[in-house]
Amino acid sequence: MPDSRREPVLEVRDLHVAYDGAVALDGAGLRVARGELVCVVGANGAGKTTLIRAIAGMVKPAGGRILWRGTDIAGLSPWVVCERGIAQVAEGRQIFPSLSVAENLQLGGALKRARSTRTAEMERVLVLFPRLAERLRQKAGTLSGGEQQMLAIGRALLANPELIMLDEPSIGLSPALTRQMFEVVRALHAQGVTILLVEQNVAESLALCDRAYLLENGVTTLEGTGAALLADDRIRRSYLGL
Questions:
Q1: Which residue from 200, 205, 242 is spatially nearest to 227, judged by alpha carbons?
Q2: How many whole angstroms from its chain centre is CA 39?
């Protein structure tokens, strides 16, 4: 397990975001060290997706800092954040349905930072997701939900990221495909990929991650190792039904 005392590559401090006056984040914070798998759990509406979107540059914070390798990136445009080395797999996959699988993957490798690695990363993705290799010419919109999620993750990997953020990767998937998706996350982590995971499946996420944060009403209220949060009475009562 990575040492959580190491200097973080990503650190979110006292982040505030509001939509039309409605508070979504009210002091959220977290840190992710290189090679870690960190998950954020919480109820629907707790602000988890807003947190990911703020880091990715898709929403502008009203206050707080987002430090990437010590530099504040809060408010930067999404493409600038991507070029810095942060890739997002958005909730709902957000693939281009009219483009082929190959074309969707190639879009991930269009960044300047990815040009020298895209051939090797394409090979890596097709080994990781052999089903995509069988469907390279197929329109992405005709893929199953699980295949589309594989495609979204593969496209993010083509960007040669230093950190990949996964927002609810199992949403809408069957139990069997959900297990498969967590195996993919586990495999990426084993390969040394730094991951920030937001997931509705609290038990599976906490069992998988190095460290975790509980987000409630836009505030980070609990943090610790995945095992510690899994054993916490508050988590067990409110999120695991125990």
A1: 205
A2: 9
